[in-house]
Design a protein that fits this description.
This protein is mainly α. The protein has helices spanning 3-18, 22-34, 40-58, 61-67, 69-91, 98-105, 111-117, 122-135, 142-169, 171-174, 179-199. It is globular.
């Protein structure tokens, strides 16, 4: 891969990964509610799931799916519905009190849940479409695909770690009074706003 193309790919991967989105919001909420260690399955599940989508893009499966309006629409709306479901889990108070209630509301995703979530993540599909259109249009080689997967994996891990660490760093402060409740509501509203923005795209 030429250097200028690698630089463009790296820019797309890091901008696409580090900007606010469902994975980063989930990472922040998990870090804040459960600590950094509980985030580790998400740290590795996100790049694993996204890498499988990129490989599907390399062999033409992703393009085939996205080329059919009905299938593309089903993927998009299923993802948006799931994001809204998570947002409601965060934003709507449940019975119970204190930390027990918060932990019941926001359970950490497992490795496989995080990996599977990428297929319901509209932002992930947008990145796959952009990547396959820009860097695989002339035909994907094994080496080229490996570079693309590697760059995105580093970017995904880095973004989830940074956002999750930020959430974990707030744990002590959020433990006071109703701050965690307000934080989860704010994150739920933000996630719902993200889902609605994706719905309008």
């Amino acid at each position: 891969m030429p250097l200028e193309q690698l630089l463009a790919l790296t820019t797309l991967a890091f901008v696409g990964s580090f900007t606010p989105g469902p994975n980063n919001m989930i990472a922040t909420v998990t870090g804040a509610n459960h600590g950094f260690r509980a985030l580790l399955p998400h740290v590795f599940g996100v790049p694993f799931g996204f890498a499988s989508m990129l490989i599907a893009g390399a062999v033409g499966v992703a393009a085939l799916l996205l080329a059919h309006p009905l299938i593309a629409s089903l993927i998009k709306w299923a993802g948006i519905a799931y994001l809204l479901f998570i947002a409601l889990q965060l934003a709507i108070p449940r019975s119970g009190s204190g930390e027990i209630r918060e932990r019941a509301m926001v359970k950490p995703l497992s490795f496989w849940q995080s990996a599977a979530f990428q297929y319901a993540n509209p932002k992930a599909w947008m990145l796959v479409a952009a990547t396959t259109g820009s860097f695989m249009a002339s035909g994907a080689t094994i080496g080229g695909t490996a570079i693309i997967v590697g760059v995105f994996s580093v970017a995904c891990i880095g973004s989830v770690v940074v956002w999750g660490w930020a959430g974990a760093a707030l744990r002590s402060w959020l433990a006071v009074g109703s701050r965690m409740r307000v934080f989860n509501i704010a994150m739920g509203v933000s996630l719902a706003a993200t889902a609605l923005w994706l719905a309008m795209q």
